[in-house]
Amino acid sequence: MAIDILPSDALVDPPRACRLAEPENTASAPNPPSDEFIEVVAEPDSDPLDGYDLNRDSLPLLARIIDQLQESHPEAADVIARNVADRRQIAAFVDALFRYVETGFVQFRCFIHPNGNEKTTWRYPWHGVSITDRETLIDRATEFASMAALADKRVVFAPPVVALKDPKSARNGDVLEGPVLSAECDDAPRKARETLTQRLGLPTCVVESGGEWTDPVTGEVQPKLHLHWRLTEPTRTQEDHDRLKLARDLAARLVGADTTAVPLVHPLRWPGSFHRKAAPRLARLVELNPDVEIELTEVLDLLQEAFEVTGQKVTPPAARVSGQLVADDPLDLTAAVAVLENPNLTWAKWNEIGMAIWAATEGSEAGRASWLSFSAKSTKSHDGDGRFDEAAAQERWAHYSTSPPTKIGAGTLFWLAAQACPGWRKPSSLARKAKDDSPWQVEMAEARAANAAATAANAEPRYRMTEAGLFYDREPPKPKGDDELASEGGRTSGRR
User: Fold this and answer.
1) Torsion angle, CA of 297/298/301/303, rounded to 10 degrees?
2) Which has more pLDDT, 1 or 102?
3) Which residues make beta-bridge pairs with 382?
4) How remote is the C-alpha of 71 from its chain's centroid?
5) Tens digit of pLDDT for each residue in 310-319?
6) Alpha helix (H) ranges present in 201-295?
7) Mean pLDDT across the chain
8) Does the structure show a pLDDT above 70 at 444?
9) Average pLDDT score over residue span 173-181
10) What is the rounded CA–CA span in Å between residue 195 and residue 207?
11) Which candidate, 337, 199, 173, places its Cα nearest to that of 263?
């Protein structure tokens, strides 16, 4: 049967200028397309299938067209075969979730789905691509996903969303960087998405995996979902990998999601590839918030609190303490407390903040200064002349050492800071993200953050700015002339 090219006005909802009509008898192959059919679009960011007026609505039809083009138009057949998977969706997925990953490999895991539940590997040992070359990673992922889609057997393309130490090994101990919190929502996916979004905020990516779930009560069919939240900083130590695994476990159990997806190395279908357990269906991005990300410590606290509300115990033991108590960088703590409001809080709320600051700083003098600064924001602590009376705050601070807090600390303060000031980030995290910038940019960011924190704490800024816009410790030296700056590339880190 010949392929019919439908005019655009004959389509109900055409995503392109025209579509290919499905042959009535799917068992019979179409005749070879005419020469007029072969017209490649040269735009670099366009979908190569657009050049042939093709889409991915029917994988069997694409396979038949490729077969028919092998002899008459082998180059066109090759272009289509390499782009059966949707490169644009894969590229968006990689950019959104692997954005902060620095090293390691992404492993292209592929499995064959038999009639039973057991999966067997396909093209093993699996191929791995370095995360440092994003374009090659995206190109190779598109090719592998396309090969899996066109394979004679039902192959699924499902690389773990993680960076591995070795391209050929993907055990839990092989994780180098863990960039995302993921939840595989196969049961009641719509409700699971709503619940986790309410708790954690919008996901960075929502993927319809290609599978379907049927509501046993209403009979409604819903697409199964994979939800992904990018971390502000990937996990890079075994301790942090374990904390991310705990967060994934809590998220899954909170909504009754698939707990087999808890390990960081669990394979997950990528958008742009095909689901082939049943009738082939393209896995696709249905929501993309590329600039949305979460702080692991804050989210772990939120999940543990949400989970405990259900009346269930968090496991493993002491998981509540796995939320960060002590701040890794004192500047992060100072910056967090600086943005917190104190609108004459109740004694209980005021005391809770004090306990968190004490635990986060281990009772240090820097912590005391932040506590006094926070307390001074309340008019209740001022005398008749409007001066801050620090006696009560000092007394509370001394008391904390007699019974040190163990369940509240830096994680709580970071979460409160993000709630009080949307978009707030730890200065140390911002500095690390500037690693691709030149050294002077990193140091300028650190200096600005330190000055902002000092100002908020009513302290003298540590750094002074010159007319040239450079920061120096304390008093700046004599400003340099234009010739001197030019000889140094126009900029200097300024640290003296």
Assistant:
1) -110
2) 102
3) 388
4) 44
5) 666 555 433 3
6) 238-255
7) 78
8) no
9) 93
10) 16
11) 173
Comparing C-alpha atoms, which of 264, 261, 262 is closest to residue 236? Answer: 264
Flag whether pLDDT at 140 surpasses 70.
yes
Long-range interactions of 45-50: CB distance < 8 A, separation 24+: 45/88, 47/83, 47/86, 47/87, 47/88, 48/79, 48/80, 48/82, 48/83, 48/87, 49/80, 49/83, 50/16
Rounded Cα–Cα distance for residues 291 and 492 (Å)? 30
Q: Can you say how many angstroms the Cα of residue 63 is from the centroid of all Cα atoms in its chain?
A: 34
- In angstroms, the first-to-last Cα distance of the chain is 79
SS3 label, residue 464? strand
Instruction: Please answer whether residues 317 and 235 qualify as being in contact, where contact means their C-beta atoms are separated by less than 8 angstroms.
Output: no
Q: Mark residue 438 as left, alpha or beta (left: phi above 0; alpha: psi -120 to 50; beta: remaining).
A: beta
100 token code pair: 């902060």
Distance CA 348, CA 370 (A): 18
How confident is residue 205, by pLDDT bands cut at 50, 70 and 90? very high
* 188-202, 284-298, 410-424, 471-485: range with lowest mean pLDDT: 471-485
Mean pLDDT of 222-245: 92
Question: Could you tell me which residues come within 8 angstroms of residue 426 by beta carbon, excluding any fewer than 6 positions away?
Answer: 232, 295, 329, 332, 335, 336, 414
The tally of CA atoms less than 13 A away on the side-chain side of residue 476 is 16
**Model pLDDT for residues 366-425, shown as the tens digit of each residue:** 999 999 999 999 888 787 777 888 888 999 999 998 888 877 888 788 878 877 887 677
- Domain boundaries of the chain, sorted by first residue: 5-83, 99-297, 324-414, 427-487
C-alpha to C-alpha distance for 230 and 180, rounded to whole angstroms: 4
**What is the dihedral sign for C-alpha 299, 302, 306, 307?**
positive
pLDDT of residue 466: 47
CATH of 99-297, one of 3.40.50.2300, 3.30.870.10, 2.170.130.30, 3.30.70.1790: 3.30.70.1790
Q: List CB contacts of 120: < 8 A, sequence separation 6 or more.
A: 111, 112, 114
Q: Sorting pLDDT into bands at 50, 70 and 90, what band is 433?
A: low
CA distances from 133 to 99, 102, 331 (A): 12, 10, 34
The CB density around residue 231, as the number of other CB atoms within 10 Å, is 24
Are the beta carbons of 209 and 258 closer than 8 angstroms?
Answer: no
Report the distance separating Cα 252 and Cα 66, nearest Å: 41
